[in-house]
Amino acid sequence: MIRLILLIFVPLLLTCPAWCGELFLLSNQVNNGEVAVMYWQGEPLSFGVVRFRDEVFYLYPDSAGAVVLLPISLDVPEGDYPLAAALVDLQGRTTVTELMLRVDYKNRPEEQLTLPERMVTPVAQDVARINREGSLLNEKYDLRSPRLWTTFQRPVDDPVNSVFGKRRVMNGKPKSPHSGTDFRSPAGTLIHSISSGRVVLVADLFYTGQTVVVDHGEGLLSIYAHLSKVLVEEGHELLVGDTLGEVGSTGRSTGAHLHLTVRLLGERVDPLALLDIFEGSLNP
Ligand SMILES: [Zn+2]
User: Fold this and answer.
1) Per-residue b or e along 168-196, where b marks 16 or more CB atoms closer than 10 Å to that residue's CB
2) What is the pLDDT of residues 247-275, one digit of tens each?
3) How high is the pLDDT of residue 122?
4) What's this model's pTM, rounded to 2 decimal places?
5) CA 180 to centroid of ligand 1, rounded, Å
6) DSSP, res 5
7) What distance in angstroms lies between residue 181's CA and the mean position of ligand 1's atoms?
8) Mean pLDDT computed over 77-89
9) In the prediction, which pLDDT does 20 show?
10) Contact, 264 vs 123, CB < 8 A?
11) Which residue among 54, 143, 146, 263 is least enclosed by CB atoms within 10 Å?
12) What's phi and psi for 223, nearest 5 deg?
């Protein structure tokens, strides 16, 4: 079930019978680091586009019309933002409209970590490896496959022990914010794909150890890190909930846990916020 509390519709009812449909945000308020969801429900579109902060996002078809997931990155300042949309129907008629999105600043905790110094300040040979692996990952984050995502579910049933966006200090040095969500799962716990998709990377990486990357289409990817065992291969098609590996502590990790990162159109977004919007629901 979708959380009903999120169902604050901000409807735009377009004139019928010339144009029948409704453009709305699933919620007109999000926090920085989260995802805004915009729907068109009505007659089929040949094209739909929305502009947010000088960036353009394309709506893509779903069963009731069209949808787009907008990444609201951690560095978006608090404020009210216009979302300017242009919709074109199958006859080529265009409607231009605007919705407002409220972005609130979410205060995220700070975390002090102590790790082997080589994991915090990599030596030259590690830097070369880290750069190579970064390029490989960026290639995957740039994928724009057709939509494969369906419903969403948590990758494991265990509690969260470190949230997305935490400011981190490692061995006394400030580092980039936590890029994902950590689940406190014992080693060997089976990990499930958060939605349907295709495995696009299986690799043993410096920071994230044994890693699986799943492409859910339309620029949405999930990354599962520190695995002890990988049970899929690149190219495998997964349905939501399919098992892809086992929890471990490989790479830069101080103990068994699952680190889950979600990338949306290249931006890191809060995995839990995305799962909370869609968990268990089909075409909300
Ligand atoms: Zn983590």
Assistant:
1) bebeeeeeebbbbbbbbbeeebebbbbbb
2) 999 998 889 999 999 999 999 999 999 99
3) 86
4) 0.90
5) 6
6) G
7) 6
8) 96
9) 82
10) no
11) 54
12) -125, 125
From ligand 1's centre to the CA of 50, what distance in Å?
32
Residue 54: CB partners within 8 Å, gap ≥ 6?
A: none
Rounded to the nearest whole angstrom, what is the distance from the C-alpha of residue 196 to the centroid of ligand 1? 22
Backbone phi, psi, residue 119, to 5°: -80, -20
Q: How far is the CA of 144 from the centre of ligand 1 (A)?
A: 25
Q: What are phi and psi of 170, to 5 degrees?
A: -110, 125
- Cα(229) to centroid(ligand 1), Å: 18
Query: Which DSSP category does 6 fall into?
Result: G
Name the least confident of 1-10, 58-67, 272-281.
Answer: 1-10
Residue 209 is predicted with a pLDDT of 97
Q: Which tokens is 277 given?
A: 């919007």
Report CA-CA distances (Å) from 266 to 97, 121, 137, 263: 26, 25, 10, 6
Instruction: Dig out the tokens for 100 from the structure.
Output: 């407002």
Report how far residue 183's alpha carbon sits from residue 53's, in angstroms, rounded to the nearest whole number: 33
Surrounding ion ligand 1 within 5 Å at CB are: 182, 259
Tokens read off for 5: 């509390």
Domains of the chain: 4-104 (2.60.40.10), 110-278 (2.70.70.10)
Instruction: State residue 157's pLDDT score.
Output: 96
Ligand 1 center from residue 17 Cα (angstroms): 51
Q: What is the pLDDT of residues 144-158, one digit of tens each?
A: 999 999 999 999 999
**225 CA to middle of ligand 1, Å?**
8
Paired tokens of 131: 């750069």
Q: Please, where are the H alpha helices in 87-193?
A: 117-120, 124-141
